[in-house]
Amino acid sequence: MSISLCKIINFPTFKENRGSLSFIEGSNHVPFDIKRIYYISEVPKFSDRGNHAHKKLKQIFIAISGAFDIKLDDGNFSKVFHLNSKNKGLYICPMIWRRMYNFSSDCTCLVLASEKYHEDDYIWNYSDLKK
Ligand code: TYD
Predict the structure, then answer these.
(1) Ligand 1 neighbourhood includes 123 CB (under 6 angstroms)
(2) Going along 30-107, which residue ranges are E strands?
(3) CA-nearest residue, atom 15 of ligand 1
(4) Which of 35, 46, 76, 98 could bond 50 through an S-S bridge, CB–CB 3.0 to 4.6 Å?
(5) Ligand 1 midpoint to CA 39 (Å)
(6) Is 114 helix (H, G, I), strand (E, B) or coil?
(7) Which atom of ligand 1 is nearest to the CA of 111?
(8) pLDDT confidence band for 70 (50 / 70 / 90)
(9) Predicted pLDDT of residue 11
(10) What whole-number distance in Å separates Cα of residue 108 and Cα of residue 63?
(11) Among residues of the chain, what percentage have pLDDT more than 70?
(12) Does any ligand 1 atom lie closer than 6 A to the CB of residue 77?
């Protein structure tokens, strides 16, 4: 799996005087059926999250509020994305190491996932990913 498959997706958004509405349909606006949603918030300043890869899981990361940085690494190349829009999501394919950091105090990160939670889908050693 190559980092070149990981990309920003713009979600359809209706901006009106009465507010903004964005929507996401599984297998339409994102390249998988959505089986799980989770969200991360209240990350202390200077803390990071992630530091692992997934064997099969596909995900979309969205900064629903606030902002954070995420560094992706496929074992050969790495790339940093700054997520700060509720109208955009970062698609992450399987076998990509990720680290999330620089969370703003108001940040909530919403994650859409292609599978339910499976502990054995995690790769916790970067050297195992390289192999
Ligand atoms: P983890 O995936 O390590 O979070 P992050 O990648 O943001 O650092 O998950 C943290 C804890 O939450 C871990 O003990 C497993 C648990 N968890 C679930 O039970 N279900 C889930 O869907 C997720 C994402 C995590």
Answers:
(1) no
(2) 36-41, 49-54, 59-65, 68-73, 78-83, 88-92, 97-101
(3) 119
(4) 98
(5) 10
(6) coil
(7) 24
(8) very high
(9) 98
(10) 6
(11) 100
(12) no
Query: Which residue matches tokens 């599984």?
Result: 26
Cβ of 50 below 6 Å from ligand 1:
yes
pLDDT value at 131 more than 90: no
Confidence of residue 1 (pLDDT cuts 50, 70, 90): confident
CA separation for the pair 34, 30 (Å, rounded): 8
Q: Report d(CA 35, CA 52) in Å as an integer.
A: 20
Q: Whose CA is nearest to atom 6 of ligand 1?
A: 50
Interval between CA 14 and ligand 1 midpoint (Å)? 32
Is residue 52 among the annotated active site residues? yes
Whole-structure pTM value = 0.97
**∠ CA(72), CA(47), CA(113), 5° rounding?**
45
> Reduced to 3 states, what is the DSSP secondary structure of residue 67?
coil
CA distance 37 to 126: 25
Digit-coded pLDDT (tens) for 90-105: 999 999 999 999 999 9
Q: What is the DSSP letter of 4?
A: G
